[in-house]
Amino acid sequence: MDHKGFLQQVVELSWEKWKAYEGGPFAALVVKDGVVVGRGWNRVTGTNDPTAHAEMVAIRDACRAIGSFSLEGAVIYSSSEPCPMCLAAIYWARLERVYHANTAAEAAAVGFDDAFLYQQFALPATERSLPVERVFVEGALDVLAGWAADPLTVPY
């Protein structure tokens, strides 16, 4: 199947799940070697989980299916350009490429505007609208050092 074929499946899945009122109008597929290994659709409102975006759900599904946190060699097809959270997860999962149908601007036009997140990330931490503050806690650095020194640690 070609890219348009997988994206057509994504569009159909997003339509189906939105019409079932399971979440927003978004879906995603993770594909490896031409085979769908993960499916996801927006489940934010159905699960009360703000991280349950289509791409996140598809990545979780694919990782469970292949038994690995790495999706190296796979690609993701999304109904819309991924938001910053999903894009970060795509990088962490080591997906090789993103194919999307709708743009971020098209999603923003119907109320899914994530431009403010990109604006916030570009600011120094002290100037963001969400205050983030480091508080020193005894032993916190020891946990990181212990993890790094443990020969049984699985790096990612």
Question: Your description of this structure?
Answer:
- The model has no long low-confidence stretch (mean pLDDT 95).
- The protein has a four-stranded mixed sheet.
- The chain has helices at 3-19, 44-47, 54-66, 84-93, 104-108, 115-122, 140-149, and strands at residues 27-32, 35-41, 74-80, 97-102.
- With 156 residues, it is of the alpha+beta class.
- The longest helix has 17 residues, at 3-19.
- The protein is 43% helix and 17% strand.
- Strand 3 (74-80), helix 4 (84-93) and strand 4 form a beta-alpha-beta unit.
Key attributes of the depicted protein:
single chain; 4 strands; 17% strand; alpha+beta; 7 helices; 156 residues; four-stranded mixed sheet
Radius of gyration, rounded? 18 Å
Instruction: State mean pLDDT (0 to 100 scale).
Output: 95
In spatial order, strands of the major sheet run 2-1-3-4
Order of helices and strands: HEEHHEHEHHH
Largest sheet: 4 strands, mixed
Give the strand content: 15-25%
Structural classification: alpha+beta
**Termini Cα gap:** 31 Å
Number of helices: 7
Poorly predicted ranges: none
So what's the overall shape?
A: globular
Helical residue percent band? 40-55%
Total beta strand runs: 4
Task: Spell out the blueprint of helices and strands.
Layout: H1 3-19, E1 27-32, E2 35-41, H2 44-47, H3 54-66, E3 74-80, H4 84-93, E4 97-102, H5 104-108, H6 115-122, H7 140-149
Parallel strand pairs: 3-4
Antiparallel strand pairs: 1-2, 1-3
